[in-house]
Amino acid sequence: MTANPHTLFAADALLPTGWAREVLLQWDASGCLIAVTPGSACPAGTPRARGPVLPGMPNLHSHAFQRAFAGLTEYRGAAQDSFWSWRMQMYRFANAITPQQLEALATGLYVEMLEAGYTSVCEFHYLHHDTDGRRYADDATLSQALLRAAARAGIGLTLLPVLYQTAGFGSQPPKEDQRRFIRQTDDMLALLERLTPACHAQGARLGLAPHSLRAVPPESLHEALQGLHALDATAPVHLHIAEQPAEVQACIAWSGQRPVQWLLDHAPVDARWCLVHATHITPDEIQRAARTGAVAGLCPTTEANLGDGIFDAQAWRAAGGRWGVGSDSHATVNAAEELQMLEYGQRLMTRQRNLLARADQPSVATAMTLEAVAGGAQASARPIDGLAAGRQADWVVLDANDPLLRGLPEAEAMLSAHVFASHRRSAIAEVWVAGQPRVREGRHSLHEDALSGLAAARRQLLTDPP
Length: 466
Ligand SMILES: [Zn+2]
Known about the structure:
By secondary structure, the chain is α/β, with parallel strands linked by helices. It has helices at about 85-95, 100-115, 140-155, 185-200, 220-230, 245-255, 260-265, 285-290, 300-305, 315-320, 335-350, 365-380, 410-420, 445-465, and strands at about 5-15, 20-25, 35, 55, 55-60, 120-125, 155-165, 205, 210, 235-240, 275, 295-300, 320-325, 395-400, 430-435, 435-440, 445.
């Protein structure tokens, strides 16, 4: 008898209910888990995982093109550098990138994400037009580049074309350097319709990202949400909110309300929504927003890099709020580091430790991994919420023999070391997406090609300054 090719035996696996021993994973030819059975014997011929098996982490917030200038904004340009001076640099690159360069950058980035433990990505995609701001002959050119990049790397994708119309609250006309982002609402709905079959064909999910309240006037927000609902009533909706105090002040000046308050009063926020950042949120807003079932999209390393501030994750969780993590600007691309930074921010704020653990899950790395996978899956609107039958066969195998983990007593301690004591290395041995091994021995099969392509695209952008 030959062994079933779609099986893996794990001495330890992190299931949605917590750690389990002697787990047999079985999946079908489409890459869907059909059985996850703890307490199993290992059938003859079944491969054994090299260490603890973790659910794949969804990356719930990415702007792929921003990978091009990671590392290039870490110097002082003005007397006081801030998010807004960083944004000027970002616009220089956004306005120069070609479709070929975007595809090369995204392919390299998605390979890096897979190697770093992310098995899917929500792409918050706001470059639509050519470098002069004119519509491409094929209006979906840049979205198609991202779809191809995700297919080639083998990462799950939730594509979120961005609606961007104004430069500030009160319908301020867009600026010249926002020319590639601007799209009228009916054009956006036409783009979504156009992208539906392409997304469907590769198992990607399609949603909508109203960029922020400053970039989308109320009537456009309303109209776009109605159009999206008609197209797909379960499609995800992501928007940036309350990332910066200046944005909160401008929203108050415009409407008399803070951004989260305004949104909850004027939009049908529910479990399909992902509120990206939500850094500057009041206790009252936390209570209200958490009750909607929306996910808080936290990007701790980018929020630290940009000097945004620290999200009150303890209050959010205490209110029953769901959350996940994203690598956003890609200054850091590492699922474990996002969790570490999130917990460390809370520790530094309160001078306490292990704040994001739970009574039923005292290991902080375990509790955070489970919550970030569940919240990330919800924001992705894909069946990727952990190792259970009916979910996609996405997981990460740690190498129990890696020097970072060797000698630790059990899987829970190994995950803790992976999150909190990785020494900027990785103990990831394998990463599987939809039942396919995309990363082996810590390396993606396209590692050389994809990262050379990324480097070449970056070099071109730097040699040929915008
Ligand atoms: Zn963002």
